[in-house]
Amino acid sequence: MKVTIAEIDRIFRSEDISSQIEFLNELKCEEYDPNLAAHLCSYLQKKDKGLRSALSHFFVQHKCYLVADKLTEFISSVDISLRNIAGEILISYGGFAVDSIIKFLKRTKDAIDLKFAADILAEIQDKKVEHAVLELIKHTDNENVLISYIEALGNNRSVQSVDLLIHLYNENEILKPYIINALGKIGTVKAFNFILQQYKDEDDLVKYMIIESLGDIGNEESFFFLLSELQNAALPFIPPILESVYKLHVRFGFDIPFDEKVKRALLIMLNHKESEYRKVGAKLLDEFDDNEIISEALKHYGIDSEFDEVIYHKLLLNKELVLKHINNLIKTETPNIASLLKLIDEFIQHEPKVLSEIDKIQLHKLTDSVSRCLKHTDEIVRLYAVELLFKLDVDTAILFLDDEFLNENFWIKIRLTELLEDLNHPSVFDFLEKLSEDENEMVSERAKEILLIKRKLIEN
């Protein structure tokens, strides 16, 4: 038996939200007609967040033209939350929602509602959007709405709109960045040539957009154009230029020459506050072998897992150089000491013979630097340091296990007992004896167990 509007009202006019959500979860698409769906949509106006979420999920799963019509009514609502919910559902409807949004755009006069509806349309990729916007844009003088229409044409890669966009570019300064972005997404030869021609005469904002667009639609000509710009670029332009160069390098296999300007740019990328630029720098790191660049990359190791994953292979191939730089970085109290200590440990696990391949003087310097970390204020640094010290030089590790260190926190002392368990060193018994008297019962019991095992081995 199909659900009726009367039954919908009986259920949703009550205060029993849980029953309403349960009803939605059990309701099958074939059990209601489009008119019922539109009626059900009206209950999005109820304030309960759980119910709104359940209704939103239901409508996304069961697309309906009449629901799209109803949702556009909410664009004019004073309830901002309801407007946003309606917008999200309409965007998810894609082509199902286009006709409803167009009808709304044609009938409303409110500037805020027009902009909101145009923004929704811009997020939908469907051939109907292109056709509708090419018509609507001719009758629009609201700059905010025009911006949304331009974004819609770019997002839908409207080849038909290239001439119109070029015309608008020469008519309105405010629209220029948005038109460049749209032309970049459309990516035809005419769009590319037009973008390149504008670069020299435009302000910084438009130049920035042109650089980004060339990364999306560029060719060999734009690749070398960007490299030439890199030679004299001001600092704010270096990251977007190098990012676009990298995109073209990946797409076409163009070789990036390694000179002082490229090196400077790469160092700026690796040190950039925006993680996306740092990641581009990390990816370019694989192309070049340079002492200073590897050192800069290490300063940021451990901050972002994606960054670490990109540069790890490069670091692995330059272990001796990396260890030398880590030694210097530890002395400068770099914030990522814990990550660098962990990196050394991973090197040793990956390739145990790495320590025997290091110059003895370099190994001594590294051991000395790691031992300093035993006094660090961060307990994670201290924990990693004591573990690493036992792998670098057991005698030095034992030397630094003074009474003060034996008063460390629980986790470090537990880890210390595990490290001592695997050692056959004369001083091990003394330290285990001290730990067996520790105030923490788990530490003392563990130390006693290890002492007992070691003594039995000696007796046998």
Topology record:
Blueprint: H1 5-12, H2 17-26, H3 34-41, H4 49-61, H5 65-73, H6 80-93, H7 95-107, H8 111-122, H9 127-136, H10 143-155, H11 162-169, H12 176-186, H13 189-198, H14 204-217, H15 220-232, H16 238-252, H17 260-270, H18 275-285, H19 291-298, H20 305-317, H21 319-331, H22 337-350, H23 354-357, H24 360-372, H25 379-392, H26 394-399, H27 410-421, H28 428-436, H29 441-459
Helix pairs in contact: 2-4, 3-5, 4-6, 5-7, 6-8, 7-8, 7-9, 8-10, 9-10, 10-12, 11-12, 12-14, 13-14, 14-16, 15-16, 16-18, 17-18, 17-19, 18-20, 19-21, 21-22, 21-24, 22-25, 24-25, 25-27, 27-28, 27-29, 28-29
Order of helices and strands: HHHHHHHHHHHHHHHHHHHHHHHHHHHHH
Describe the oligomeric state of these chains in a short phrase: single chain
Number of strands: 0
Q: Mean of residue pLDDT?
A: 89
Structural class: mainly alpha
Q: Measure the end-to-end span.
A: 84 Å
Coarse morphology: flat
Unreliably modeled segments: none
Radius of gyration from the alpha-carbon trace, in angstroms: 32 Å
Estimate what percentage of residues fall within beta strands: under 5%
Largest sheet, in brief, is: none
Q: Helix share of residues?
A: over 70%
> Helix count?
29
